[in-house]
Amino acid sequence: MTWRSPLALMRDALRGQRAREKDLRNLVSNLPYEGLEKAKQPNRHFPSNAIKTTKYTLLLFIPMNLFEQFHRLANIYFVGLAILNFIPVVNAFQPEVALIPICVILSLTALKDAWEDFRRYQSDRKLNNTPCLIYSKEKQFMERRWKDVRVGDFVKVVCNEIVPADLLLLHTSDPNSVCHIETANLDGETNLKQRTVVSGLLFEPESFSGIVVCEKPNNNLNHFKCYEKPDKERAGAGIESLLLRGCTVRNTDHAVGFVVYAHETKSMLNNNGPRYKRSKLERKLNIDVIFCVILLFTMCLVGALPPYLVPDSSGHLDSPSLSGFYMFFTLIILLQILIPISLYVSIELVKIGQIFFVTNDTDLFDEETDSRIQCKALNITEDLGQIEYVFSDKTGTLTENKMVFRRCSIMGTEYPHKENIRLAVLGEPESEEEVIFDQRPQSLQTGWSLDAEDTNPRDTTQRRGSRHRSKVTGIAQSDVAFSSPLETEVIPDKKLLQQISRAESSSGSRKTDPYLDFFLALAICNTVVVSMATAQRRRSDNLRYEAESPDEAALVYAAKAYGFILLARTPDSVTVRLPSGEDLVFKVLDTLTFDSNRKRMSVLVQHPITKEYVLYTKGADYAIMELLGTPYAQHHLDCYAKEGLRTLCVTKKVVSAKVYESWSVDRQRALAAIDNKEELIMDTAVQLETNLSLLATGIEDRLQENVPDTIMALREAGIQVWVLTGDKPETAVNIGYACRLLEEEDLIALVIDGRTLTMALSPDLQERFVDLAKRCRSVLCCRVTPLQKSRVVKVIREKLKVMTLAVDGANDVNMIQAADIGIGISGQEGMQAVMASDFAISRFRHLKKLLLVHGHWCYTRLANMIIYFFYKNVQAYVNLLFWYQFFCGFSGTAMIDYWLMIFFNLFFTSAPPIMFGIMDKDVSAEVLLGVPELYRIGQGAGEYKFSTFWVSILDAFYQSLVCFFIPYLAYQDSDIDIFTFGTPLNTISLFTILLHLSIEIKAWTVVHWVIMLGSVALYFVVTLAYSAICVTCNPPSNPYWILQSQMADPMFYLICLISTVVALLPYTFHVMRNSITPSPIVQARHLDRLDHSEREQWIKEWRSF
């Protein structure tokens, strides 16, 4: 080690202190400076509380919006061509006419942006003008607006009111100095959380002269530190004393706080807006656009060559290089629609329409939670039809997260609670006697078990009961958050009841029997908030529980079923009623909250009778077993895990007064610390949680309805399903068999735990792990952390180049965001995954229809629409104009009126492909669900391949040849003018591309007929009107009375009929091929024509084959 002088060490320490001070901000009260000019106010440098989410102003909207739109290269390209058209030597159209298409696109986008910004403006104004109460020099709270709140103000928030800024809690109406808040607006959780008043600070606004030092604004919702100076002890305050903007005060008359962050609140800094994702189909589309650019340049180069070879009237070459240069740009202007200007706008409209039908599917609506599917990512709907790997969590995703108290082991005797098993399965109790297994331990022990990750109150969240909270009163309509009959209707084991009765009698007044300790631990070691009506405060049947996780609700109700009723909880005490009716008030000395490193929580209380210091702890079995004085119950834990029960350990430890006093000093020092506070708090918790005594229980978390059927369907669809869980391997394997992820006939499956997975994901073994995993029919990852889950998803996605989907019903945000598509399940646990997801569903079974039906439809519809769009543009005008150049000396002349060319793409042919992309159904939903193998078409990009794109382009070239040369040969040697020749071409092109689309449509509805016939009618109405009134619209020629004359000539109808039929002849070969060697999709369409019973029989035979 290098020796350093004391002076150098001191200098480094000072530098470190300065660096830490840079991360802090000093705040003072605004009260003494009220009414002074802004320059004299010490908090003037901090932003006000007014929010502004609008992007534009009224005066600068047009330039700012145009600047934003010109970030798209396509817009610059088309504007550049429109400007180029103003140059006389290269123009192909009337200059003002050439501006119309791009102006229409820019205007539509601008109108959309203006409407969205106006809605943001209205929302901002409503929020900024929300009333609030601010303390003033008049020594009372005056009504102000949210926009008037400043850093350093004292703000009062009343019950059911939303907090206007981030407030340091100084005072509440609650005698226990706590404030209950609901954070649904921040993290989706509707269960109540407690915030406590800063210790050591008296609420006296007039004499508040200290400086509040807090950390600079950041987006960490779970961390905050501050202290007041001058203060000899410098007692620190953390997130437990911070009311975040957007939270709602509940069950507290009022609370007063000091504003530490105004506009820079944690919720505002977390509002990053929607994430932008590009779909796989969009990436392919961009490549094909490049091919179109190459094709356009090739055609223009071909058209630019003749000036080198064609002499002028005097027989001399007229500046061949310059003429060719001019002609190249003239043809680019003329053939520009080969790059579809409206394609991206049409795709956005199609996706909006697809989302509308997905969100209104009644099969994806859950009546129990009164929720429908939420689509948050509008630009990746087609990716739902190309998923190859699904990564799923277990708890709250595959399972109900509705807990049934199934088993417990006390003093080595197991009580199976068979009636609760029957309640879980059938919803009704069974009266037969339970069988009890008696295995005496070597020493007297007590404890309980369930999975670690499920004990975290921060990582679990709402249930239906609290979701139905009234928006007006904020009082839950049900009796408990996370409550269901499965949790509340616990049927006690008869022999265990008898044992408890004997224990109460034998323990006398001390109440320290292990049986009593077990249920006291269940009632005390949690964060359940108890509330009840004031008039009924002592009636246990009127209790209302607010549990932060389903586990805690199940355990509290299990204790209640045996007579150990949690009556009240304050920061300083817990009141529990015993079966005898006696109420015990335990003094709460400290609560060691759950964290992801320890995987446990503890509550240190003082027994009201024995005065002993008792530590109750609960946590994951692997986190608890190593802390036991004498571990003995592993056998029961393994048995519970093999039955698929979630196992959690609950322990007890009696702490001596001397140990407590010494530990308490360290604990208070850690709580008062400013720097490294979290580490110090964790060290004190670990210091106390040793030499524990154990009990054991098992809680069942049932599979959701139709989970096995959904997983089987996904596997038949060619989707690999991985389950990533924090459970024990035995539990995970049991669940794997229950949900049919694992089956007896599987040749190979992989079950890997977190420790092994860490090594498998190392750079040296990563390739071998991926190679092994892709050969397995099923993969189960057990005891994995959220970070490991996201790493697995990233590795598989990047190494195998596959489309991945992550689905979670809790808080695995990293895994959700690592996948191509993230799906959150808004069920019983956390809502963080839902808020970070691209799609949110309420049940896992909805994934089946979302992928196999809507995913397939969205992909095939959009893929076919894009292919059709390219075909339409190439066939309709680009090639027709290009062939005409061979007969006009490559002069860049068009044989169709410019206005009709513009109307053709903007009005006559724009609606049909959009309708096609929104409403077409190549196969019915019933057949897609019955034959999951059809989903493989999207996985292999069957509807949008490289070959499919070029076949459609070649088909467009063929049709353009037919549409051009049949009229040309028919009118050869006649004296018709240019527009008389172009009008039949225009009409034939319209009929051909609409009939082409009619053949592609697989499911006709009234909407299809109206739009298709309406497009034809609109074409004739507009063209006839234009021909009737346009006399000098397009000098030197004009389209006056052209279509009227054509429609009086039988030759016109004959040409239109013959050209359209010949152009569509290749479909004859397509029909013959499908008749001889039908594809799976063609066979599936045949099933749609059968009656229901016959169709079911065919589906069974198909799946068995």
Automatic annotation (TrEMBL):
Mg(2+) binds at residues 393, 395, 808, 812. Its EC number is 7.6.2.1. ATP binds at residues 393-395, 552, 594, 618, 646, 725-727, 783, 789, 811-812. CDD domains: P-type_ATPase_APLT_Dnf-like. It is found in: Endomembrane system; Endoplasmic reticulum membrane; Membrane. Its cofactor is Mg(2+). Residues 447-471 are annotated as: Disordered. The active site is at residue 393. InterPro entries: ATPase_P-typ_cyto_dom_N, ATPase_P-typ_P_site, ATPase_P-typ_TM_dom_sf, ATPase_P-typ_transduc_dom_A_sf, HAD-like_sf, HAD_sf, P-type_ATPase_IV, P-type_ATPase_N. Residues 834-1078 form the P-type ATPase C-terminal domain. This is Phospholipid-transporting ATPase. It comes from Amphiprion percula (Orange clownfish).
